[in-house]
Amino acid sequence: MIYSNLYHQGKEKLLLAGIDEAELEARLLLEYVCGTTRSDLLAHGDMAVSEEQENRYENLIGRRMTRIPLQYLTGTQEFMGLTFSVSEHVLIPRQDTEILVEEVLRNLHDGMRILDMCTGSGCILISLLHYSNDCEGVGADISEEALAVARENARKLLGAGKCQGNAEELPDDGECREDGSMAVLKETGVEDGNKTGAICFVCSDLFSNISGRFDIIVSNPPYIRRNVLGTLMPEVRKHEPLQALDGGEDGLELYRKIIEDSRAYLYGGGMLFFEIGYDQGREVSTLMEQAGFLEIQVVKDYAGLDRVVYGTRSVD
Ligand code: GLN
Fold first, then answer.
1. What's the 156 CA to ligand 1 centre distance in angstroms?
2. Is the pTM for the entire model greater than 0.85?
3. How far apart are CA 221 and CA 249, in angstroms?
4. How far is the centre of ligand 1, averaged over its atoms, from the C-alpha of 189 (Å)?
5. Distance (Å, rounded) from C-alpha 51 to C-alpha 62?
6. Going by CA atoms, what residue is nearest to atom 5 of ligand 1?
């Protein structure tokens, strides 16, 4: 079959299945299968597609019709200009979360220690280390499957390909080394000098396996109210990990626990950053205030909705 006909068939099927962005997604899946780009549909729509590619495309369209998100089919999502691997074990990185990363970057200095609580795909922590110098990062998550994805992303985006010379591999065991030090991933050849970063991922039910203190704790915890979960789009409700979404009865359960415990893991003057739901700004600010955090700020996203809350731990 020719390229443009296959695309049109795919688009019609996605439209019938009620997929909002049927045109875009039919094209992206075809480009994924054929290794083509946007302009191929316009310039080379009449090229032949192999039977194998045709079958693969039809299979993906069929799966997309069952509301599996596009990103789980292609296995990737762009975030902060980086391409992250994703699977059904992790939340797909959202553009809204870039606001959180940008707020942290504004307050991040060379050499700081960062904890990313509920790291999922690792998108927050890995972006922070990618865009900073000499920082150390610990990513914590309760899900081993999620941590495997995060480690793969760290290797791909901070190590491996960019690792040269004596750069060490990120350990697979999920532990920082026994002596408490961390694997160092070196990125050489950067114009403004050598960039080093250290990262490790720990399987931990919130702070249960975390030790040491941090300059910054950042978290995009599950924050959807339990009675709202059923109303989410089928892509989210049926395919994204429930554990990454469910914020308990009032959506604030994880904030409460993290705020309560974070004091013991932050240096005096250290900062706590959260992504929040659009209607949680006041409640999360109040929780932080009650826990003694200072200079609490709420930051809006590009839609004008509350998206980030952060504050500073008092010095003892
Ligand atoms: N930190 C990850 C993200 O922002 C996962 C968040 C989560 O699982 N709630 O995508």
1. 19
2. yes
3. 14
4. 31
5. 16
6. 120
Please give the Cα distance from 261 to 70 (Å, whole number): 37
Other C-beta atoms closer than 10 Å to the C-beta of 263 total: 17
The closest residue, in CA terms, to atom 8 on ligand 1 is: 244
Report the half-sphere exposure of 113 (CA within 13 A, side-chain side): 15
Which residue's C-alpha comes closest to atom 10 of ligand 1?
93
Give the ranges where the chain is alpha helix by DSSP (H).
3-16, 22-34, 38-43, 51-65, 70-74, 97-106, 123-130, 144-157, 234-239, 253-262, 281-290
User: Looking at ligand 1, which residue's alpha carbon is closest to its atom 1?
Assistant: 119
Minimal-distance CA residue to ligand 1 atom 6 = 220
User: In whole angstroms, how far apart are CA 40 and each of 12, 31, 48, 71, 285?
Assistant: 19, 9, 12, 21, 49
CA 120 to centroid of ligand 1, rounded, Å: 5
Tell me, what's the pLDDT at 169? Answer: 44
| C-alpha 40 to ligand 1 mean position (Å) | 34
Ligand 1 pocket test target in 88, 118, 243 with most atoms within 8 Å of CB: 118
At residue 159, the pLDDT reads: 75
Cα(140)–Cα(34) distance, integer angstroms: 37
Is the sign of the CA dihedral 76, 78, 169, 265 positive or negative? negative
Pocket of ligand 1 (CB under 6 A): 91, 93, 97, 118-121, 123-124, 220-222, 244
Give the chain's residues under pLDDT 50: 160-169, 171-175, 177-181, 184-196
For the stretch 248-291, pLDDT in tens is 999 999 999 999 999 999 999 999 999 999 999 999 999 999 99
Closest protein CA for atom 2 of ligand 1: 120
Instruction: Give the whole-angstrom CA distance, residue 152 versus residue 169.
Output: 11
- Give the three-state DSSP class for 197: strand
